[in-house]
Amino acid sequence: MNVNEPIQKASDYGLKPVGTSRLLSLDFFRGLTVAAMILVNNPGDWGHIYAPLEHAPWHGWTPTDLIFPFFLFIVGVSITFALEGGKSKKGVVGKIVKRSVTLFLLGLFLNFFPKFDITLVRIPGVLQRIAVVYLVCSLIFLKTNSRQQLYILVIVLIGYWLLMTVVPVPGVGYANLEPATNLAAWFDYTILTPAHVYKPAKTWDPEGVLSTLPAVGTGLIGMLVGTWLRSSRPVADKVAWLFATGCLATLGGVMWDGFFPINKALWTSSYVLLAGGLAMLGLALCYWLIDVQNYRRGVLPFVAFGVNAITVFFLSGLIPRIMNLIHVTQPDGTEIGSKEYLYRTFIAPPFADPKNASLAGALTFVLIWFGILWWMYRKNVIIKV
């Protein structure tokens, strides 16, 4: 393919088209990210997990810590494809707000289920943060140009760094980055109260109030990349600049880590740059291989995940909870949830190493969802949220 040629459609790849104005590589990258999210969220045994499939305890990062920012980055890229033609259309803001509210309520429902106790329900969550980032980034995209978006990104990252490292924490007296006494934790404790945050943390939330600000920065990086990909520049220039910018952003995150540590729970500015840079490199590679070089081996399974990403994320969180409500009596008379029973009975026994068994359980869950999503894809069933 000549690198100056326009991007081809999905049908040109021998694959079913999944809609207009879509990059096949973006659907693939989104699907790969969601499949990884399901994998790490559903181990067979939470007590036996390989280290790369766990989050870093506090400062630092693992591959698992990249999954959520990758998805927010993809949200930002997708905004440019979905809204570019709708900037002047009436009602577009209403549709954005409606979708954001829907996403937020779906996340809140997952937190409510199955107890539905409003006094103790966790308010933040993954879908809730996606909703807020989508809303804020979409409105910014409608009202600003790329240069202004870059300025906003710089202000957000530097502003958050100063807030977290300079502003004294009320009740503590000094700025710090410790789990329970940092400024973001104070916001969560004050605004959400301990009753409505992530229960293992007790007084703060990894998807909390203040840390959502730099998460918007992750979406802004995706928007800038999406605008770049939609430009009329030659494909070779797009890919080269994406790789170069991705390397610089990653390096910037590593350097900033020296005085503002990479930390997913705090969503530090260094973490935004690191994850954003690696996401750029990942998408650039997918874009070059799939949309430019027409490489399609192994693409379809993840495209099937990508076109129904929110649906599979929501249901993959809901169904295990429903299964845990269905108890199975064991030979010794004790009762366990049906999900755990299936894991212990059919998946774990062949494995001597419990970590291998746990990984097999997670992979089985992903494969089951692939079967469902493959059927939906073949039937052109795309559930838009």
List keywords for this structure.
2 strands; single chain; 385 residues; 13 helices; HGSNAT_cat; mainly alpha; Heparan-alpha-glucosaminide N-acetyltransferase catalytic domain-containing protein; two-stranded antiparallel ribbon; 2 domains; 2% strand
Polypeptide structure, described:
With 385 residues, the chain is mostly helical. The chain folds into 2 domains: 7-54 and 307-385, no CATH class; 72-294, no CATH class. 59% of the residues lie in helices and 2% in strands. It has 13 helices and 2 strands. It has helices at 24-41, 67-83, 92-112, 126-143, 146-166, 183-192, 212-230, 235-256, 269-292, 300-306, 309-325, 338-347, 354-378; strands at residues 327-329, 335-337. It has a two-stranded antiparallel ribbon. Helix 5 (146-166) runs antiparallel to helix 7 and helix 10 packs across helix 13 (354-378). The longest helix is centred in the C-terminal third of the chain and has 25 residues, at 354-378. 41% of the residues are buried. Residues 1-20 have low confidence and may be disordered.
Helix content: 55-70%
Strand percentage, roughly?
A: under 5%
Number of domains: 2
Radius of gyration: 21 Å
What is the rounded distance between the termini?
A: 35 Å
Structural class: mainly alpha
What assembly state would you assign to the polypeptide chains in this entry? Answer: single chain
Shape: globular
Low-confidence stretches: 1-20
Major sheet description: 2 strands, antiparallel
Topology order in helix (H) and strand (E) letters: HHHHHHHHHHHEEHH
Round the mean pLDDT to the nearest integer and report it: 90
Number of strands: 2
Q: Strands of the biggest beta sheet: in what spatial order?
A: 1-2
> What is the helix tally?
13
Protein name: Heparan-alpha-glucosaminide N-acetyltransferase catalytic domain-containing protein
Organism: Spirosoma linguale (strain ATCC 33905 / DSM 74 / LMG 10896 / Claus 1)
Transmembrane segments: 66-84, 96-114, 126-143, 150-169, 208-229, 241-259, 271-290, 302-323, 359-377
Domain Heparan-alpha-glucosaminide N-acetyltransferase catalytic: 22-232
